[in-house]
Amino acid sequence: MRAVTVDPGREEIGLADIPEPALASATGVKLRTLEVGVCGTDREIAGFQYGSPPPGDERLVLGHEALAEVVEVGRDVERFAPGDLAVPMVRRPCEHLHCRPCRAGRQDFCQTGDYSERGIKLAHGFMTELFVDEERYLHQVPYGLRESAVLVEPLTIAEKALAQVWEIQRRLPWADPSAASDEPGRGLSAVVLGAGPVAQLGAMALRRRGFSTWVYSRSPAPNEKADVAGAIGATYVSSEQVSPGELAERVGNIDLVYEGSGASKLAFEVLGVLGTNGLLAFTGVPGHGPLAEVDTDALMRSMVLRNQVALGTVNAGFDSFEEAISDLEHFSQRWPDAVRALISARHSIEEHRKLLVGHPGGIKHVIAVAEGA
Ligand code: BGC
Ligand code: ZN
To answer: How far is the CA of 64 from the centre of ligand 2 (A)?
Structure first.
């Protein structure tokens, strides 16, 4: 069967013919890939800057943002039957007995660094026709999300960040963000950095929770990303036209910054205008760019005198996948056109190269792997 692979040693990417996988355990599930999203991580791996094949293999099968259909289940599988739709998680635990996060099923916080990630690090991914996984790493997706569930994985990044935001902001007891409210962000302001899929899905999650939301990204409006932001009730601001200081004047106290672009210089400038008791969550993984200057005195003074938190977050655990599926159902009902607009185009597996090394533009590009998918 066909697979998009990267050979970091030979610096080659291409379509390879690999053997079909077979169910190897009673708790295993065999799936047919329907769609796989392409993101910056895939492009970095395809540029041989990141990622590694499984031990003993020269090539890595790419792809970690998948939607698949169950074709066969092992005899002890309880939650899935053939025909079900599923989204696989990305990270698998390390094997060290002393790694408490991995032993607790929270490999997204792996302490040793010896975790693997499907399609990224030491494990094959999903840009292929069939794959096998353990039931515990799969999430059931309702059929109504057939068109959008390829966005679940990028949305989990925001869900994990938000889960931590509520934990941390419980330090502000009067705000009581843990209170059973549908809109715990009501009355608060959030700024989203970037306007790609991770950023826009984060903006939708923030809007759902009632935040006044600002999407702060490079290109001046009008453009397709500004349109998506507008459609979900967020305010789009171009960082080429409005400085971080001016942005803060418009917003008022910036309670939360959700960084989803990987642009480190802008992120640190915005940290400098974060509001009192505010929190900034970094999710982007920048490459090595030119050195930038930061006024460390001003930054540290403001962080201390304004009780601020800066947080880094990567990957996502089981609950964040469940949250993402439930959020995506809400988004698809409330903003169907904006959700559709996040997927710029679907491509055949043969077109992988232009998505991985070209400049396709747009927001999210998806490879429709299955025939007629
Ligand atoms: C993926 C995460 C992964 C991270 C680092 C991201 O693109 O969404 O699941 O942990 O890359 O490899
Ligand atoms: Zn990704």
So the answer is: 6
